Amino acid sequence: MSRDGPTTRDDRREDLQRLLGHRPIVLIGMMGAGKTTVGRRLAARLGRHFVDSDEEVEKAAGMTIEDIFRAHGEADFRAGEVKVIARLLKDQNIVLGTGGGAFINPETRALVKEAAISVWIKADFELLFQRVSRRSNRPLLKTANPRETLQKLIEVRYPVYAEADVTIVSRDVPQDQVASEVIDAVLAHLSNETPNG
Ligand SMILES: Nc1ncnc2c1ncn2[C@@H]1O[C@H](COP(=O)(O)OP(=O)(O)O)[C@@H](O)[C@H]1O
Ligand SMILES: O=C(O)C1=C[C@@H](OP(=O)(O)O)[C@@H](O)[C@H](O)C1
Ligand SMILES: [Mg+2]
């Protein structure tokens, strides 16, 4: 990277595409972290196609996630989720937003590690809780004490999310800034991965 003048957005995008090749970028992390919304912006910035595993599971099942959980239960949802992610990861040049439990499933995790660069979008409990409280479309949080449920999921999941290739912390900043931080963090990771990078 020897250029005159400041590094522009386009330079970073080109550097990233060169180091990444066709590998998908997969966003993982808790419900409310911003995988879906930040993922869309990230894909637009990189000129990549964005896919969301929840949306694709819903399309494949012809039902909403809430209805899948209600009619068939979580185990069936996870079985569908792993199949959908395996299919989506065959497409290169994508940004894939996953559901919060996807990377916790060992089979899904192995697929992601094999085919993609994974990015954990990590966020503070209060921020996550505030965001997920805005909508009631997450069946796992329909419990007597959703704060406690979210806290328990965090305790179980964080050590697994920590296996991601890259971690970024999402604070209360605009989604475009979070997308920018993902680009910087993935670039830094890939520069270390490349022997002469
Ligand atoms: N950086 C951010 N700033 C403000 N709101 C955000 C940010 N990231 C996500 N959100 C909001 O939080 C909610 C959850 O985001 P979403 O992308 O659906 O998360 P996930 O897919 O990880 O569950 C949405 O309402 C989204 O608009
Ligand atoms: O954390 C989880 O287990 C889930 C997260 C949801 O996706 P988001 O993380 O995009 O909300 C969705 O897959 C489902 O409700 C289960
Ligand atoms: Mg999502």
UniProtKB/TrEMBL annotation:
Q: Name one Pfam family in it.
A: SKI
Q: List keywords of the entry alphabetically.
A: Amino-acid biosynthesis, Aromatic amino acid biosynthesis, ATP-binding, Cytoplasm, Kinase, Magnesium, Metal-binding, Nucleotide-binding, Transferase
Q: What is its EC number?
A: 2.7.1.71
Q: Which Gene3D superfamilies match?
A: P-loop containing nucleotide triphosphate hydrolases
Q: Which domain of life is it from?
A: Bacteria
Q: What is its main location?
A: cytoplasm
- Binding of substrate: at which residues? D54, R78, G100, R157
Which prosthetic group or cofactor does it need?
Answer: Mg(2+)
One GO cellular component term noted in the UniProt record for this chain: cytosol
- Protein's UniProt keywords contain Kinase: yes
Please state where this protein is localized: Cytoplasm
Q: Which GO terms describe its biological process?
A: amino acid biosynthetic process; aromatic amino acid family biosynthetic process; chorismate biosynthetic process
- Record's PANTHER family? SHIKIMATE KINASE, SHIKIMATE KINASE 1, CHLOROPLASTIC
NCBIfam families reported in the protein's UniProt record: PRK13946.1 (NF010552)
Quaternary state and interactors: Monomer.
Question: Any idea what job this protein has?
Answer: Catalyzes the specific phosphorylation of the 3-hydroxyl group of shikimic acid using ATP as a cosubstrate.
Question: Would you tell me the protein name for this molecule?
Answer: Shikimate kinase
**What species is given as this protein's source?**
Devosia insulae DS-56
What is the name of the gene encoding this protein? aroK
